[in-house]
Every structure is written in structure tokens, then in C-alpha cells.
Amino acid sequence: MELITEGLIQIAQTALVLALAPGLTGLVRWVKARLLRRRGTPILQVYSDFARLLRKKVVVAHNASWLFRLVPYLVFNAVWTAASLVPTFSTQLLFAPAADLIALIALLSSARFGLALGALDIGTSFGGLGASREMMIASLAEPAMLMIVFTVSLFAGTTHLPAVAEYMSQHQAFLQVSVLLAAIAMVIVSLAETARIPVDNPATHLELTMVHEAMVLEYSGRHLALIEAAGSLKLVLYLSLFCCLFVPWGIAHQAATPLDILAGLGIWVIKLAVGAVLLAVLETCLAKMRLFRLADLLGGGFLFGLLSVILMFVFGSL
Amino acid sequence: MEFSDPKVQLQIAYLLGGSMVVVNFALLYQSRMSSVINAFAIHATILGLAVAWQANVQNAPNLYITAAIALVFKALALPAALHYVVRKLNVHRTVEMVFGTGLTMMAGVALVGLAVMIMQPVTQHSGALVTIDLIFAMAVLFLGVLMMITRRNAVTQVIGFMAMENGLILAAVGVHGMPLVVEISVALAVLVAFIVFGLFLFRIRERFYSLDVRYLDPDSRIPQ
Amino acid sequence: MIAAFDATSVNPLYLTLGVPALSTLVLFLLPGYRRAARCNVLASLVTLLASLALLWSRPAPNDYLFVDDFNIYLVLITNFVCLTTSVFSVSYLTHELDIGRLRRPYARFYHAMFQGMVFAMNLALVSNSLGLMWVAVETATLATVVIVGLYRTEAAIKASWKYFILASMGISLALFGTTLLYFTAQSVIGSGNAALAWTVLRERAAELDPAVLNITFVFVLVGYGTKAGLVPMHAWLPDAHSEGPTPISAVLSGLLLNLGLYALLRFKMLMGANDQTLAPGPLMMGLGLASLLFGALMLYGRRDIKRLFAYSSIEHMGLITFAFGLGGPLANLAGILHMVLHSLTKSALFFTIGHVAQVKGTQEIAGIRGLTTSHPVLGWCLVLGVIAIAGLPPTGLFMSEFLLVSTTFAREPLLAVPLVLGLLIALGCLIQRVQAMAFGEPTGSAEPFKISVLPPLAAHLVLVIVAGLYIPAPLMAWFQHVAALLG
Predict the structure, then answer these.
(1) Whole-number Å distance between alpha carbons of C25 and C159
(2) DSSP symbols for A219-275
(3) Which chains reach chain A with 3 or more Cβ–Cβ distances below 8 angstroms?
């Protein structure tokens, strides 16, 4: 019986993250537009964009290798898997034993690695440029992420996400300086990983500034749809991960009634919406940084992480 | 959540002290003058809350005076005065640094580590509340000194000094029943007012001593 | 006069502090430059007499104030130099007002701040509470900052700002050290004023946590070391000395530097009373030697006469710090003697060059030539002062330096090498500089010498030379007692 429940919840989550992802992206865009006093595209527009892309024919450069065609599937699958592992509204997931913070990071890194390879494959200058910038950002963001993982594991004693979520919700984590610092670091890392302002601008095609967009310039049709979907999924993933680590209230734990699970679902959707609005506000307030200033920002994230590890190491959880 | 629970008291003191260190890093990181001043206002506000919290925990009502000085004078009046000075004197709106942000921040983390290494062993027998307070106070002090020596501009140096002196008050308030605390905090407030007044009166814009040896010693200048 | 103070009705300690504090207020309000100057001299004289009375009737220590053998001689020397300085500043300020370098409202400010500084220095010396001592040192800094910037030239304001920022930074570190000391004391002595009272702390120093004392001492060394002008925290000193009015340079060099050192020594004595702490000696010797060598090397090639002697002050502070760092009765004795005699000599030198700069109209060494020909009295005073400050016989400083060098050779022969090297370099540089100024063809303007400068100057120089030839036995015994007290 338990197996069936867990299986059902897992299927529901896997489907939900995919279903909600374009909506979330649309919401961020809409709020940003409203903040700039534009009318903005409807939130559901993103869904029809995907539908349009999926209908279109794929155009592939004639010197592209098999790698180029494989990458979108690889990226999409890696991110989707990762997104369905994060405890969002319930920790009772079939694949919960695999929901480990380090595994999650590994999945996302492999997706990034694939994307960079695909960008390099055709040999256009934009692809190479985007890939090298992406790798630079990644090399700066990953140490910071590692520090966050250390803090969390020192605090909760595990990197297993359901257990972390449970521990955090029971131990007044918000009073901990280390957790606070880790949360700040996490915001910075998330901005970098999801290619948002001030690290990258998702709405630009300026060669001076674009990072992520430069890598996917050569993709079209369903390939592009998959990659865009992976991008949206990443946003859901990072918001959910942040909520799971630092605001874990409302997630249904073991032996929860169906009502709890439904409540958890509602709370998760609200958290995502709030997160999207905050992200939009943040993006509106900030300007995109020069590429060479990024080292300062991400280095700052790393230092916050390092500080939180030091404090956590010295004081424990008091 | 019970506020009289010692564990919660400890955690709140920890949170406030730690937040001061975090804001200190924000001070080091900011590159625009107005954001530095605003960050300092936050720093002073947290100090005020931390002092008030200590007054509550130690049951020492005279510390509320110190808290009030921090909240009213340092968090409101001084930042307003500094904004005015910056506007009136046409100080550079960007903060000039001696080293890059990254290097400064890294030095800052090293200093926090140093503070922990110095204070942790000597305070371990005297209760976690004091330990935490003194460690954070020393970290704030060090970061203030770091800010003073890595900034070229007089206004940012003054802010570094004031941040440093916030650390002093945090320390003085944290050890139980230190005599003259209120007097010392008043004296420091007067001192700071003096500095800001001097900034404006003497129209001091740039920093006078820097790592640049040309400024180090007027004798080495070749006379005209 | 003394008998009057002896009556138990008036505690001379309160008089020593009260007179300057009161005169600060009075001088703020008192219009008229001449009256203020006279009032300043009078207040300094009364303060000196009151502090002399302390020799006979010493009040019992309380948690805030106390007088012991160590601080009383510093109180005396402080008030003596303040008196002579107030006499010197009468003629100095008159000249500055005449040539329009100083405006009259600022002269009123000068007198008020002068007395404020006297008050703060006396308070710092006699305060038993280390917290009170900190407040007093800070007050003395503020008062001198105001006077250093008195001329309102760009250079003067820069110098006073630099002095202010560096001294405040140093003093903040000292406050942190004091807080730490209180932190360990209150677990032994209990909360309250007693836990900051030096006499109580000294008695129970053995019970204090040695690890905390170590950290305290490092903070205090850096903090009060800044006030004492030790390298590498010396950057404020040359500017503050050269840009302010010369009487203040005399007080800064002669007294305020001693004050920083005095505060440091109080903490060192606490360290010495606890035998588990780190030995403070090597740290002080290191800083002392660094200051000595740096100061001596910087003497070479100075162009500004006040700056020259400012660097000489760094050198001598290094020497004194080294002596106290070495410790033991002989080295301490040398340190104490040197502290007093350096105060007297350096202030005499600043009086001389203050007037030299006035008659020549310049502070540039290049503009001063042949003083012994054009102004014989001034010229020979300068020569005498430099002989004294360079530690040549028959002056008192020769005696203290000789004592220190011979002790060092006996105990730490390796350290004696840089010590002697520093002294020789300083000697050479000073002789080279003064030769150019004192002898040769006179150049530049030759305003007449004012005889009113002579009394304070002569008083100091005579004392310094007499001290080199003969120190009364009771006085020497007393100095030896203080040296033993310092441990």
C-alpha cells in the first residue's frame, strides 16, 4: 500500500514539475513586465510557445555531429530527473532514497556539461563564447554550492533531502546564523545557475552579455523546446530546493494523511508563486553585472558559504 | 517559542551578533557610497537590537540607554548626516578600494576565522552567551579595521571606524556588568559626532594616508 | 602653601584635577588674550603646587583614583612641563598673533584646550579604574587634535585628521583589550567597578586567566602603543608634531607619548603579577628596537626642523619601550630616568626651535644657518639640547642610555648590537643636522631674540645637565624603588 502511495506521489510530482515549469517562467515574465508598467504577455503564453516549437521542423547545421542531436534530450532528462527528486510537497517519494543533495548537483552538472559540449559542437563563435562563459560561472558557483552542502550536512547531519527538510522544520533553523548565511549564498548560486539577472539576462541576445542564450542559438524546433523546458524546470528546481532547505514548512512528512499532502501541494504552489514574484522584483531592481564583476558576486557567495561552514563548525547548532 | 528559554535567548543573541558580521561583509562589498551608508544604518540597527536583547537577558535596564543611542543616533541621525555630507561635498559616489573586493572579502573571512581562533579557547568556560558575543565583537572589530585600511575615501574610512566601534560596544555590553558602559557609549557617540562634524567642517574628501608611499611622508616630496 | 593643602579638608588630588577642569571652562569664556594667557600660567602653577602636595598627603586609593610611587613622579613631571610650556606659549602665541598666523578667537580655544589636556593627562595618570583611564586618554587625544589643527592650514588639518583617525583606531583596540580584561576579572572578582580597578587587579592578577591576559596585552600594546608612537603605528606622529603650534609639539613629545607608555606599563605590571602569562618583554623589546632604528634612520635627510625632532621622539620612545621590555631593576631604572629626562630635554628643544622658527621665519632646516653667530643664546641652547638628546655626557640622558646599554650588554649581548647601532646612527644624523644650523654664515631674517623665552628653556636644560652630574640620594633611592615596583 505504502509503495503504491509513494509511487503515485512520485508520478504526481514528476508530472507537476513539468506542468508547472512553463507557468512559473511565464509568471516571472508577467510580473517583471507589470513592474515596468508594461501589460506583459499572458502567463499561459509560454505553454503555446512550447507547443509552437514542438510543431516546428528541426534545422540542424550540416557539420553538426550526433552529439548535437543528443544533447537536448540529455539535458532535459537530467534536469527533469533532478527536479522530480526534490521533495516539493511531500517527502514520501518513491525515489526518495536517491534524493541526495550531492546526486542532485551531479545531475545538474552533467546537464550543464552536455549543453556546453553541444554548444561547442558546431564550431560557431557564439557557441564557444557562451560555453566558456558558462563554464566560468559554473566554476565560480560550484564551490559556493559545495559550502552550502557542507553547512546543511553539518547542521542536519545528512545530505539526504527528505531528512534535511524534516530536520530543518523541527529545529528553528531560521535562528541559526549559519543557515542564514547559507541561504544568502544559495540565493546567489541560484541566480547564477538559473541564468537570471545580475548574472545573465534571459531576455537578451546581445553578444556582449549573453551567456546561456549564446549556447543555444543554433538549436531549433523540438530541440530548442527541450532546452527551454530544461531551463524552466531548473527554475522550479532551485526554488523548490531553496524552499525544501530553508523554508521547509508545510511539506508532508511520513505518515501524512491525504489531506496533509493536498495542503502541502497548495503550500508548495504558493511558495513557488511567492518565489517567482520575489525573483521578478529582484531582477527589476538589479542591473546585469559586467562579466568580470561576476567573480566578485559569486566569490561573495562562496565566502558567505565558507563563513557559514566556519561558524557551523565552531558553534555546532548550539 | 519561549523567550525566557535560555536556549532561545542564546540563539537570538547568536543571530543578532552573526547578522552584524554579515552586514559588515555587506559594508566591505558595497561599491557605492550611498549603499555603504545604508548598510551602516542596518549595522547600527542590529547593534541596537543586540544591545536591547542583552539588556533584557542580563536584566540591566541601563543598557537600554546604549541601545537607544545606537538606534536613534547611529541608525538614523548619523546616516542622514553622512548622506548630507556626501551630497554637499561632492564626494566620489563610488568607493575607492586599495585591493579588489574579492581579496578584501577573503581577508575578511580570514579575520573572522582568526577572531574565532583567538576567542574560542579562552571563553569556553564562561557560558555560550559571552563566547558568542565576544567572538562576534572581535570579528566586527577586525572587519572595521580592515575596512579602514582598504578604503581610500575619508567617508568610508569613518564608516569603517564606526562599524569597528559598534563591535566595541557589542563587546562591552556582552560581558556582564561592565562598569561605565553607558558612559563609554556616550563618549564614543560624542567622538563619532565629532568626526562627522569634522568631515563636514574641514571638507575632507580624500583619505590622507594610503599605501601609496608618496603620501606617506611629505619630506620625500621634492621641494619646488 | 603646602601646609594649607595638608589640612584634611582639601584633598590635593581633587585640586590637581579640579583646577585644570575648572580653568578649561573659565578660559572658554574669558575674553582677552593677555588675561587668558596669564590665567593659563596661573592655573598651571596651582596645579603643579597641588600635585607637589600629593608628595606629603597621599589620598587613600579608591576604585576610581589612586596615587602610588609610580604615577606620582609622572604627575609631577607632567605638571612641571605644562607650567613651563604655558609660560613659553605666552611669548610664542604673542608672536604668532602679531604676524597674523593665528587669529584671536583661536587663541582662546588654545588656552581652553591646553587646560583640558592638562586635566585629561592628570586624570589618566591618577585613575585607578582602567576604564576611566581609557576615557581620559581619549579626552587628551581629542583636546590635542583640536590644537594640532589650530592654524587651519590644509597641512595642519590633514595632520590633525590623520592623528585623530589613527589615534582613535588605536584607542579603540585598547578599549577592546580593557573589555577583555574586565571579562576575565569579573569571573574572579565579581561584577562592578572593583573588577576594573588596577590595585584590585594587581593583587589578584595571579587568579586571572593567563590566556585572556595575553590577548588583552596584545590589544593594549597595539592600542596604547599607537599613542606612544611606536613603529609601525607611528604614522600620525611626525605630521602632528610639525603642523601644530610648537608648544603643543613640546607637550605631545614630552608628555602625551609618555602617557601612552604609562598606560601600557600598567598593563605590563598586571602581566608580570601573573607568572603563567606570556612574557610581555620580547614584544615590547621588538617594537622598541624597531622604533629606535626607524626613528634613527629617518633622522637622516629631514628638511623640516620640527619633523626632525618628531622622529627623534619616535627613536627615544623606542628606547624607553625597549628598556621596560628588558625589565629588571637596572633596565627599568634606565627607562624611568630616560622617560623623565627625555620629557625635559625634548620640550626644551621644542621651545628652542619654536623660537628659532619664529626669528628665522621658517621651519626649513635649509633656511636656518649660523645661529650661534646671529642669536648666540638660542644657538648654544640648540647645541646643548642636541647634545643632551643625542645622549652625550655630561647630560642626564647620557647616564640613562649608558645604564641601558651596559645592562643590555650584560643580559642580551645580541640585542645590544642593534641598540648601539641605532643610538650611533641617531647621534651622527643629529650632529650633522645641527652643525649646519648652528654654525657657519648666518642667513635669512634675523629678528631679535626675546628674552622671555629663556626662563622655561633654561629651567629644563639646567635640570637635564644637573641630573647628569648629580642626583640626590633620596631621589635616586625612590627611582630605584619605582624600578623594582615595575618588575
Answers:
(1) 26
(2) --HHHHHHHHHHHHHHHHHHHHHHHHHH--TT-B-TT--HHHHHHHHHHHHHHHHHH
(3) B
Measured between alpha carbons, how far apart are the two ends of chain A, in Å? 40
Contact A172 B1 (CB under 8 A): yes
In chain C, the number of structural domains is 1
Determine the distance in angstroms separating the CA of B72 from the nearest CA of chain C, rounded to an integer. 22
Let me know if residue C32 belongs to a domain: no
Say if A and C touch: at least 3 Cβ pairs within 8 Å. Answer: no
ipTM: 0.86
Per-residue burial over C271-309, b if 16 or more Cβ lie within 10 Å, else e, is: bbbbeebeebbebbbebbbbbbbbbbebbeebbbbbbbb
Which tens digit of pLDDT belongs to each residue from B96-145?
Answer: 777 878 788 889 989 998 998 888 888 877 778 888 889 999 999 999 99
Question: Which of B129, B202, B221 is the best mutation test for C, with the most CBs of C within 10 A?
Answer: B202
Give the sign of the dihedral formed by CA C335, CA C338, CA C339, CA C340.
positive
Tell me the three cell numbers of residue A80: 527533469
Q: How many domains does chain A have?
A: 1
Cα–chain center distance at C152: 25
What global pTM score does this model have? 0.83
Strand partners, B94: B32
Residue keyed to cell 552542502? A149
Measured between alpha carbons, how far is B51 from B58 in angstroms, rounded to an integer? Answer: 10
Cell of A7: 509511487
Q: Do the chains contact at C187 and B223, CB–CB below 8 Å?
A: no
**B20 close to B43: Cβ distance less than 8 angstroms:** yes
Can you read off the three cell numbers belonging to residue A109?
Answer: 552538472
The model's pLDDT over B52-103, given as tens digits with 9 standing for 90+, comes to 999 988 888 888 998 998 899 999 999 998 898 888 777 767 777 778 787 8
C-alpha cell at B48: 541596537
The sign of the CA dihedral A312, A313, A317, B4 is: negative
Q: Which cell numbers hold the place of B220? A: 620625500
pLDDT tens per residue across span A50-72: 999 999 999 998 889 999 999 99
CA nearest to B160 within chain C: C169
Q: Tell me which residue range forms the domain holding A276.
A: 2-315
Contacts of B177 in chain C (CB under 8 A): 186, 191-192
The SS3 of residue C234 is coil
Amino acid at B193: A
Q: Give the span between the Cα atoms of C377 and C355, in whole angstroms.
A: 11
Q: Is C7 exposed, middle or buried (0-12, 13-18, 19+ CB in 10 A)?
A: exposed
Is residue C157 exposed (0-12), middle (13-18) or buried (19+ Cβ within 10 Å)? buried
**A90 - beta bridge partners?**
A252
Q: How many CA atoms lie within 13 A of C278 on its CB side?
A: 12
Which carries the bigger pLDDT value, residue C448 or residue C427?
Answer: C427
**Containing structural domain, residue C407:** 290-487
Q: How far is the CA of C109 from the CAs of C37, C105, C149, in angstroms?
A: 11, 7, 11
Give CA–CA dist A276/A31, Å, rounded. Answer: 8
Q: Does the residue C80 lie in any domain?
A: no
Domain spans of chain B? 6-206
> CA A102 from chain center: how many Å?
14
Distance CA B11, CA A174 (A): 10
Residue B205 confidence (pLDDT): 55
CA atoms within 13 A on the CB side of C344: 25
Element (H, E) at C209: none
Q: Contacts of residue B134 in chain C, CB cutoff 8 Å? A: 180, 183
Helix (H) or strand (E) holding C449: none
Please state whether the peptide bond connecting residue B79 to the residue before it is cis, i.e. omega within 30 degrees of 0. no
Question: Would you say residue C128 lies in a domain?
Answer: no
Helices vs strands, H then E, count in chain A? 11, 0
Residues A194, A238 contacting (CB under 8 angstroms): yes
Could you report how far apart the first and last alpha carbons of chain B are, in Å? 72
